[in-house]
Automatic annotation (TrEMBL):
Pfam families: Glycos_transf_2. This is Glycosyltransferase. The lineage of its organism: Bacteria, Pseudomonadati, Bacteroidota, Flavobacteriia, Flavobacteriales. It comes from the Bacteria. Residues 6-132 form the Glycosyltransferase 2-like domain. SUPFAM superfamilies: Nucleotide-diphospho-sugar transferases.
Amino acid sequence: MKELVSIITPSYNSAEFIEETIQSVLSQTYENWEWLISDDRSKDNTVELIRKYNDPRIKLHVLEKNGGAGNARNKSLERAEGRYIAFLDSDDFWYPEYLDEMIGFMDKNNAELVYCNYSRCDEHTMEPVLKDFEADTIVTFSNLLKTCRLAPVSTMYDTKRVGKFFFPVKSKREDHVMWLNLLKKIPKGYPLNKTLAKYRMRENSVSRKKKNIIRDQYLVYKDFMGFSTVKSLYYTANWAFNGFLKYSKIFN
């Protein structure tokens, strides 16, 4: 029997997009999955929309209080029983072959972690607004310090090989900190240079807000990696420059 995949999703006020996300999971050609959705006290009808789907693999947990995306992901991770951990935010999208391709590539390369290309799309039309982000480089702890090539929508890891990794709830750059902690344990993650997902570029997304983002990234190195001030400033500068290249339409 195929190994179980645990899909980790935080949801908060996602009614506008959640059903498209749900359909992308239900359409997966790889069918042995559990979907652990932790709703972070949505104020719209997100919960009602999720509950419409009568599939025992969809496991919704409504949290007692709002605690942020990192905390919501952690609550799902605590309950996850699958060998493979995959992440899908409540407004993003997978192509039907996502799980099949990712797991097949992971097995073929004997990899603990893999990531793939993803489209960067308008939040309403889901049409590309930048060229696809390409998984064209092996990721290591060293190169992940300078730019975060791993996105939840396009990354999977093997808990049998590395265990579970949780998100620091006190960081606003929790994804990057979690990936760095994981890459401390394994030598590298492998790139699957094929577009298998869509990332919705929302204007009100925390990750897209410019205010305080440099400071938050600096704290990734200073507080969570334990680097010196000079070393933290060096990596923050590298991250900012690479982020400009990643998102500027001049280069995309």
